Amino acid sequence: MDYKNKPYFHVAHARDLTGWNKILYRFLEIIPGFLAWSTLIGVILLSFYKPVWAAIFIIIFDLFWLLKTAHLSFHHFHNWRRMKHNIKLDWNKQLSKLKYENIYHLVLLPFYNESEEVITNTIDALVSSEYDKKKILIVLASEERAGQEAQDLANKLKNKYQDIFGDFLITTHPTGVPGEIMGKGPNITYAAEEARRKILNSRGIDYKNVLVSAFDIDTVVWPKYFSCLTWHFLTVEDPQRSSFQPVPLYNNNLWQTHAISRVAALTSSFWQMIQQERPEKLVTFSSHAIPFKALYEVGYWQKNMVSDDSRIFWNLYMANDGNYKAVPISYPVSMDANLAPTVFQTFRNIFKQHTRWMWGVENLPYMIFGFIKNKKIRLKKKIHHTIVQLEGFWSLATNPIMIMVLGWLPIVIGGEAFRQTVLSYNLPHITRYLMTIAMCGLILSAIIATTLVPKMPQEYKRRRFRWVIMFLQWALVPFTIIVFGSLPGLLSQTRLMLGRYVGKFWVTPKHRK
Amino acid sequence: MKPLSKKMRLGSGILLGIVFVILAPILLANSFGYQWEKIEDVFTFVKTGGIYVASDISGVQIYVDDEYIKDSGLFIKNTLIQDLKPDTTHTIVAQKEGRHDWRKTLPVYESLVTEAKLLMLPTEIEKREIFPFEIEGVGTTTPSEDAIQSSEVDDDFLVDGYIPTNPLYKELVNSFSDRVVDVYSTSTKVTDDEIPTLGEEPISTSTEEIIPEYFTDLGIENPNDLENLIITSNQISWLENGDIKLIWVNDEKPPYYYCFDLNDCETEITIDWQDEILKFDFLPGRSDVFVAMIADGIYAVEADGRSDRNIQPIYLGSDLDFNKSIRDQIVVKDDLVFYEMRF
User: Percent of chain A at pLDDT above 90?
Assistant: First the structure.
């Protein structure tokens, strides 16, 4: 029996299983939170009982972190250069050497109650695309629970744009379907199936020739996105077993939002840029593209869990017995940074959004469970992915706290005998030196960020100091990586550990000034 | 443009791995105080110690055995002197223009840091006179328009027959007087015979006051008998035969200035001056420095007796008195004038 036909293929959490499978899955759910808390509590206990050991660990860990930062900055810098190159490249000219006329792009635009301005911006960018618009099939995926107002808006937009694209379908995902959470996954799955029946089947389009771009509603494509994507699809080895990941740049509204929001948003973008240079670690995230045939074969996105964007990669990976990959295309799509009417609401929304992202840890037990169950996947791949994913979630939740906060702990709670040692006096000095050097990576980030900032709106032209703030804001990173990195990560892992599953997809409000 | 090749990435990883393998032991050895040193033509690792000089003053020049080491920073004012040979003593001198020098000879122990804290008062301490009245924002001894005459207040506390209007001045007059009630209270006039002095005030009134255990341990039955008794959270101090007694009363290990050797920490320090100390208090913000008044003036003196104590003048003169104001500043009373000393 193929793995995709197994009863646990679309499992969301341990509660969906029975017997030993449930016990095993529950155990796997506990692992990330247990590792994170063990580490943090371990460092505290070590600082209290064995402050010398703790100090040795902290110094070695600080050095490791510095060198890791250097390693990642190397990847980041290269990807920035590659992305700039890809933005300038004439992808249509590249495509002209290939047979691409039969390739269609099915664009899914799920929305709930976002404003007309947000959706229009997204569709206008699609209109500006330098790709044959008749090969772009739009699906505006609305929600029944959003009411008549959303339907009216969808119809209005259809009337405005339908003649431009190859097709323009409005779907309305019904409310209250058993087994579904309220979220993006069920909506785009419904929309994809509707598009299959009403567009692909009716027009006789071969599924193999369709690429699905699953976007967030604020995703603004750059002009050559579809050309770039098509080129990668046509040139990659085994295209039907590949997902395609652009760089999500959260820069649509950088000038309008707050410094902390900018730093949090760009840090997320930068992490994705680093991952683009490490394809063996890459998993689909946010806006991504998947061959329709592969998507159809696994039953689209899961409808019973929150982090559907990453889960679909693991669904496809398991279904293809490990012969599936995410291909980085190093071409950007722009999205909104968090912005709300007040500063507090903005910060709250960033925290909630990042907590939702970090809830991606729910894929970890699914992945390891799949590795245990699917004997056809090579052991080397299983070990590699397990280590990469475990280390990723562990380091995200714990490392910034260890570096910024716990580094001083042996001095504070290590006792008077330790406090008088040369080691105790050197610990803060060495930590400070290493972190200061590591912060040099922030200068690189600040420089790269300035090249990714959209053109300054006219109303800000007189406020030249905004450029200064745009540079100095990177000093906030030690704060943002703890508050919007570690804490949401720790919260999500703790919830999973305790079996308090997130049952609703929190939709990030899209506010425009 | 191609993505980073596996070869490049591996190369970067290996290079940084090598850096890690080389740097980690060096950093750790350095952190533990090890130093690479040539002894009898052989290079070897030797353990060292250090001296930590705490300071709240920036730009202080630090010398070790007459050799200039560094200036204390603008933000990081403390100085850590490292790589000192253990089982030796070193004389630390701190200098800054406009301030008294500080000098201390301290021992160094293997893998440990010897602590000390600077005492560097300005050579010319700024003093601000506290006036009884204020006219148009300027302090004065001339009664202001809102000053009132009173027959209910003792003449000794009036200025030209008027009640002072400056609250700080009034507070100081009260603090320097022997009386426990407000001398400017006009509700009831208390005769001198009826005013209890601080010395006569009983420890307990209606309920029996519990005497802390550490007094019992010290064989002191009635702490109220102690002259100039000052009790802080971890220390008690009083005057005894013209000397200051300072006792550590916490169960934890006492701070560095009680420790005269590596494993020899006392719990009692005696400031045995050749002149009789008439009155003392702690220097504001310090638990290791006293303000001591002797016959010819008021001085700051360290509790730290590991080598000669640094003693620096605050106010010179005779027939002085001093107190701490509500703003935790030292106020000197010279004749009938109050001066707030600003360090």
Answer: 80
Structure tokens at A161: 């744009």
CB–CB contact A422 B12 (8 Å): no
- Low-confidence stretches of chain B (pLDDT beneath 50): 188-207
Nearest CA in chain A to B22: A63
Q: Please name the residues between 329 and 348 in chain A that touch chain B, using a CB distance below 8 Å.
A: 330
Mean pLDDT of chain A: 93
In chain A, where are the structural domains located? 100-341
State how many domains chain B has: 1
Would you state the pLDDT for residue B187?
Answer: 57
Contact A159, A284 (CB under 8 A): no
Chain B residues at the A interface, defined by Cβ less than 8 Å, are 1-4, 9, 12-13, 16-17, 19-20, 23-24, 27-28, 30-33, 48-50, 52, 80, 82, 111-113, 115, 252-253
Comparing CB atoms, the residue among B4, B16, B52 nearest residue A78 is B4
Task: Report DSSP letters for B2-30, one per residue.
Answer: PPPPHHHHHHHHHHHHHHHHHHHHHHHHH
Contact criterion met (CB < 8 Å) for A422 and B48: yes
Using a CB-CB cut-off of 8 Å, the residues of chain A touching B113 are 420-422, 424-425
Determine the residue among B46, B52, B76, B113 to mutate to test chain A binding: the one whose Cβ has the most chain A Cβ atoms within 10 Å: B113
Q: What b/e readout covers A477-498, taking b as 16+ CB neighbours within 10 angstroms?
A: beebbbbbbbbbbbbbbbbbbe
The CA–CA distances, whole Å, from B36 to A63, A226, A398, B43, B111 equal 21, 62, 36, 7, 15
Beta-ladder partners of A171? A141
Contact B31 A423 (CB under 8 A): yes
Domain membership of residue B225 (yes or no) is: no
Cα distance between residue A285 and residue A314, in whole Å:
12
Give the position of tokens 């997204």.
A122
Q: What is the pLDDT of residue B324?
A: 87
Domain that holds residue B84: 44-117
Query: Which positions ≥6 away from A186 have C-beta within 8 Å?
Result: A173, A177, A180, A303
Cβ-contact A359, A18 below 8 angstroms:
no
CATH of residue B71's domain is: 2.60.40
**How many CB atoms neighbour CB A348 within 10 A?**
13
Are B19 and A67 in contact (CB < 8 Å)? yes
| Percentage above 70 pLDDT, chain A | 99
Query: What is the CATH code of the structural domain delimited by A100-341?
Result: 3.90.550.10
Q: Is residue A316 a contact partner of residue A243, using CB atoms and an 8 Å limit?
A: yes
- DSSP of A112-176, one letter per residue? SS--HHHHHHHHHHHHT-SS-GGGEEEEEEEEGGG-HHHHHHHHHHHHHHTTTSSEEEEEEEPS-
pLDDT of A229 higher than 90: yes
| pTM of the entire predicted model | 0.82
